[in-house]
Amino acid sequence: xxxxxxxxxxxxxKLIAFISATTFGLAGVLPAAAANxxxxxxxxxDKAHQIADLALGQGVKAQSWQWQPGSDSENAxxxxxxxxxxxxxxxxRYITFGVLHQGxxxxxxxxxxxNSNPRALGSLNGDYFxxxxxxxxxxxxxxxxxxxxxxxxxxxxxxxxxxxxxGYRSTGTLTIGTRKFNISGVNQPNSGxxxxxxxxxxYFNPLTPKGQTTLVLKAGKVYKVYPKGAxxxxxxxxxxxxxxxxxxxxxxxxxxxxxxxxLPAVPEFEENMAADNxxxxxxxxxxxxxxxxxxxxxxxxxxxxxxxFDSNFNDVTRAGRVTLRITPDITGKLFVRNVYRSGxxxxxxxxxxxxxxxxSAAATTALRFKxxxxxxxxxxxxxxxxxxxxxxxxxxPRLVQGGKLIWICALHNKEHRPRxxxxxxxxxxxxxxxxxxGYDAVDxxxxxxxxxxxxxxxxxMSLGATDAVLLDGGGSTTMQxxxxxxxxxxxxxxDGAWWRxxxxxxxxxxxx
Length: 512
What we know:
With about 500 residues, the protein is mainly beta. It is built from seven helices and 36 strands. The chain has three domains: about 1-130 and about 395-440 and about 455-510, no CATH class; about 165-265, Sandwich (Jelly Rolls), CATH 2.60.120; about 270-385, Jelly Rolls (Sandwich), CATH 2.60.120. Helices cover about 10% and strands about 40% of the residues. The strands form seven sheets. Strands 10, 20, 21, 22, 23, 24, 25, 26, 27 and 28 form a ten-stranded mixed beta sheet that branches. Strands 1-2-3-32-31-33-29-30 form an eight-stranded antiparallel beta sheet, covered by helices on one side. Strands 11-14-15-18-16-17 form a six-stranded mixed beta sheet.
């Protein structure tokens, strides 16, 4: 039964991947209104349906909303079996973003994975997977931990050099008269729903984004107030765009009021959430030979080249056409210890590596290495959008990008199922989200209840996300929270519900 479910799941996800690729091809052809004219309506995350609002740590909250089975759910256009929406959210000023795993190709349920990280405050199931491991790459400490051959989609924490004109998070103060307001960012093209962003004259776009309230400052005074917001050029002065609870307050300020901005120095680097497609690049070299590998710790082995295995692989590798065993000496320098000309299944030595050359071209190159050859190993990845990830793992299709819904409902089914997603914005706010039935039920291994994918997108946008991606769902959908003085507790469903073992998971962590 489990084997059949895995095969069915792989076929379903391949279909989703195809539809997703088609979506991007048609996105520029279909008008936005026409593309999403048949999205199912999305109920508001209102106070009447909120059932939890918990503080987990500095700036980290867990919240949930529940629609009861029957008319309450049907009237809200969610599953008639019930729908519970759960989130864990925090800001990168106070938290970091983690990937949870137990090595490759092992899988564990979210209870075990969550307990493996003492800094984690909330956790969410991760990538699609099967018995051989995750379907997409994993990056940890800026290095590829796992990857299949070719490109795969990931989401995670990236580190980039700050370019002031293109925006960054900030602290600082806007003082107008005797009133002081906290600044959240500088030159940000996609600020969150609660923000106060300063746009300098070096902002890279001709017009600033439109806030709910807009100020233009000149010569140390308020030059113009736009109570309903306006997209204006920063060439005319310093522009302040405000969203959220401060907008109506700042809308009442008067022109000619004395204004002063105090900002700290521009940071050299900043960490932000990002989604990208990555592919492994790596090689081993001796004096005259270079063998390229295009996958890391990939159980099935690359059919088009070679696969590198390191100590994160907790199993016996499969045999390629030629196998190289590489180990370090006492100084840490790497040497070829064995060349298995017909390939061999092996475990990785501590501090060592295994190369399984599986294509005929790779095998021919591998056979040129000799026992005793000194080896230089190079490993990295290429990211399509050039993001430099600190930590990342596999994702599904994009739901929201640059503040716009890009999920085209006309090309997807409208089935209400358990869903998992991650949203974020340039202010550094991150949301882990699930939709589920909300209570335990006999479901014969097929999770029921929940929402559509477009509803997940709309909920995340309503909370302030400008970007969002879908994750594995159905029986994989699982969320846990680490409650102060209590410990880990399941949040999407009761603790008594069944758990699926996962290849990896995501977490919101306390900073060191």
